[in-house]
Design brief:
Among the domains are: about 10-85, TATA-Binding Protein; about 120-230, Hypothetical protein, domain 2 (Endonuclease III, domain 1). Helices cover about 50% and strands about 10% of the residues. The protein has helices at about 20-25, 70-80, 85-90, 100-105, 120-125, 135-145, 160-165, 170-175, 180-190, 195-205, 205-215, 220-230, 240-250, 260-270, 275-285, and strands at about 10, 35, 40-45, 50-55, 60. It has a 5-stranded antiparallel sheet with strand order 1-5-4-3-2. The structure holds a DNA duplex (13 and 12 nucleotides).
Length: about 290
DNA sequence: GCACAGGTAGATT
DNA sequence: AATCTACCTGTG
């Protein structure tokens, strides 16, 4: 039995993470296919499999045996949105006048927004409604194992939407998706009837892309914004879930405000990278920094 | 046993 | 146009 992964390589232009921001970026609810293995993380997206190991201000990576590490490094560059200057974006957030955001930014400095495959992001967040992150991850593993193509290390990719459309609702129910199974299957059918629709959605301006995503069964404002933010690189998209709603209401004293008003507040207060601010706040709330 | 969990859609007021 | 409620399943 040969080793599953090749040698560790230095990821020379890796983002500058702290241990905290590294773990929070991969395992903080943006993505659902990363597993912590001692000091390192093992993750999957598209056809890619990689192990990452944070080391004092840099990151090492290992590709599966038989996979060219150069190819893996290119995939990492896209996945971690290395063309985006998150340090500059952080500096431009209103932390100077916002002590709540300042505390979150201080603790999670180096946090990034991932650029995941658009279709997979849609799948992940269709699984997510009133589920906890460990359950969402377990569901993704089951669906990948049952319907997805094998990957170089013997694990499986998430299935394409056309495979889900052909497989029907039953395997989704079997994966414990519950009522979400119908939404996912209906979305798969919707996409199967419209070749190129998802790609056109990803390429559209944010408002139009959001309106298109809202046509999908099971996709409301929150899921649409998660797909735009974590899969479409739209840093202005500001998903409001139960956590973020509580933060905004409690920490910013917006007691009587409803969701559409909170959306307006976020856009105006946090600016063009509001979604990035949202991820700092979400992380801080989950870590117990912000009273909720 | 029961409330609650990264919501959404359809019914009811 | 707000505000309930059903929808599945796992966990504490």
């Amino acid at each position: 039995m040969p080793p599953t992964f090749g040698n560790w390589q230095v990821w020379s232009d890796a983002p500058r993470f702290t241990a905290v921001s590294f773990a929070e970026t991969l395992d903080g609810g943006q993505a659902f296919r990363w597993q912590r293995k001692g000091e390192c993380f093992e993750g999957r997206w598209g056809r890619n499999v990689v192990r990452l190991r944070p080391r004092s201000g840099q990151v090492d990576y290992a590709a599966p045996t038989g996979v060219d590490p150069v190819e893996t490094r290119l995939a990492l560059k896209t996945y971690f949105a290395c063309g985006t200057d998150f340090e500059a974006l952080t500096d431009a957030l209103p932390w100077r006048s916002d002590p709540v955001l300042a505390a979150a930014v201080h603790h999670f400095r180096g946090l990034r927004i991932l650029r995941q495959p658009f279709g997979e992001t849609l799948f992940g967040f269709l699984c997510s409604s009133t589920k906890q992150i460990p359950q969402i991850k377990a569901i993704c593993e089951t669906v990948a194992r049952e319907l997805g193509e094998p990957l170089p290390d013997g694990s499986h990719a998430l299935p394409s939407w056309s495979v889900i459309a052909d497989a029907g609702e039953a395997p989704l129910r079997a994966a414990k998706l519950g009522y979400r199974a119908r939404y996912i299957y209906q979305t798969a059918q919707f996409l199967a009837e419209r070749p190129g629709w998802l790609e056109a959605t990803e390429a559209a301006p944010t408002e139009e892309a959001r309106a298109r995503l809202l046509e999908l069964p099971g996709v409301g404002r929150k899921i649409a914004d998660c797909v735009l933010l974590f899969g479409g690189g739209r840093l202005e998209a500001f998903p409001i879930d139960t956590w973020v709603e509580k933060i905004l209401i409690r920490a910013y004293q917006l007691e009587a405000w409803k969701l559409p008003q909170l959306q307006d507040f976020a856009r105006i207060h946090f600016g063009p990278a509001a979604g990035y601010a949202q991820q700092y706040l979400f992380a801080a709330a989950r870590a117990g920094f912000i009273p909720s």
